[in-house]
Amino acid sequence: MKKAVLLFTMIMFAGSLVLAQGYKVGDKAINFKLKNVDEKMVSSLDYQDAKGLIIIFTCNTCPYAVKYEDRIIALDKKYKSKGFPVIAINPNDPEVQPDDTFDKMVKKAQEKQFTFPYLYDPGRKISAVYGATKTPHIYLVSKKGDKLTVEYIGAIDDNYKDASKVSKKYLEDAINALLEGKKPKITYTKAIGCTVKKKS
User: Fold this and answer.
1) Which tens digits make up the pLDDT trace of 55-110?
2) Contact 33/41 with Cβ under 8 angstroms?
3) Pick from 9, 161, 6, 142: nearest CA to 79
4) Which of 31, 48, 147, 153 is most exposed by smallest CB count within 10 Å?
5) Domain 23-195 has CATH 3.40.640.10
6) How far is the C-alpha of 91 from the C-alpha of 56, rounded, in Å?
């Protein structure tokens, strides 16, 4: 009996460890449905004609995220018509970071004229499953029917400070490879940004 309990405990621990680590490249990702800044619910299943999704965990407050806002808008404008729209999700707990409340997300989206959904993730239900630890943190997924497959995880590019000095566009290179029917050469980079704000 003790061996059975120990085995069960080990299995549960292993399962929770995998969940805590989040997705890896090649994993099948869950679909999600969250509230957008326009008060409407947005689901990954809404994008029936998309070839994939650029899922970006970002926020109102992180200096890194703020530096990337214009580049994220440009990415959406460039790739939405090609089948890869941006979906932004705020993973921060507003009780820990008060400037990341839903109302302030609405204000941010209006001020910056976001061209993409900016979704609220209460309780970090989606960001925790994906494994987002930074803002911004990118998960590029390909889409086949209702199935999502993780193709690239990490940073947008190699210079958060200055878009004009970027030499490696990791995310764009990965999207372009998928559009050509190929697998990205670089599938993982270290996400550069602020730590996701959550209760300890």
Assistant:
1) 999 999 999 999 999 999 999 999 999 999 999 999 999 999 999 999 999 999 99
2) yes
3) 142
4) 48
5) no
6) 10
